[in-house]
Design goal:
Layout (H helix, E strand, L loop, with lengths): L35 E2 L21 H11 L16 H4 L5 H6 L3 H8 L9 H29 L1 E4 L20 H12 L6 E5 L6 H6 L6 E8 L7 H4 L4 E5 L5 H19 L3 E5 L17 H16 L5 E4 L8 H14 L10
Parallel strand pairs: 1-2, 2-7, 3-4, 3-6, 4-5, 6-7
Helix pairs in contact: 1-11, 5-6, 9-10, 10-11
GO cellular component, one term: histone deacetylase complex
Subunit structure: Interacts with HDAC6.
Family: Belongs to the histone deacetylase family.
Amino acid sequence: MASVCPENSTDSDAMPRSMAGESQLYMDIGPEQIPLVYREEYNIRLCGMEKLHPFDAGKWGNVVKCLKKMQLVKDSSLVAPNEASETDLRLVHTASYLQKLKWSVNVAKITEVSPAALVPNVILQKKVLKPFRYQTGGSVVAGKIAMEKGWCINIGGGFHHCSGNKGGGFCAYADITLTIHFLRTHYDKVKRVMIIDLDAHQGNGHERDFMGCKDVYILDVYNKYIYPHDEYAKKAINRKVELFAFTGDHEYLEKVSTHVEGGLNECNPHAVVYNAGTDIMEGDSLGLLSVSKQGIIKRDEIVFQKVTQRNIPIIMLTSGGYQRTTAAVIADSIANLNRKSLIDLSSGS
């Protein structure tokens, strides 16, 4: 699947766009709920095997625990998404790719946990891929909620290394692509979408999916010395900001501010998908950048301020982040956005 751009897709294996209207992923939320999407099933538990990967497989639950300690959320205020079904996934994924996920060796390669190749696939489906499918459903419904409320944060998702026909880098489903597909299918006014990808790694998955799609604008700020080095995918980037290893707060925040503003001016989007990876934090063994915790909090504030002051709906996904302290930083950033009145958590307190 070279491109899932709706207006120029000729892939005979793709499902009709109208199928998105039959999905159970879009749901209404109650008056007591706030635009934070999460459920316990996000977290991965594979008999301790998940610890073989640097990723904190319980990060998403730890974010919520921190928010609860701050008395910013409670269980009843969170939006619990539905699991993305195979029919949902087929809107952007090829049948052959989804079939490959039924082989444990392929799941092991994607998750970068080699011993998982020896685990029966039925177990990987339940313990690893099902959490990813719930997070994917979370990203999709976050898109709907953002259109209604102006913003939404999925405390998960952001699988930016996965495209329609290939996974990798701990990303098994193309939730960013699917979220945009749903937005453009359900909302006629959403003609242009901007992806602001500030994870430390290049977002080659969505870039491959939207190659040649003029109505999806991609800003990608990443460490040019680390995975995935996907030169082909870089052709889809509208604003490419390649960083040197160990870039710190001052230079990083200056570039983010400049290029987010410039990208918004060039694209004038009707919705923004913000991939807010925290693997840019100093000490992250995979991101290899040197942004402080306060730098991450300020980065998110800059993005939300520039987007929301233009009254553009924003969907935030938490993406990468490979330190045990990452969850607390995400929670602190959400709290800061609330304190600065860039989001409103009051109905869930």
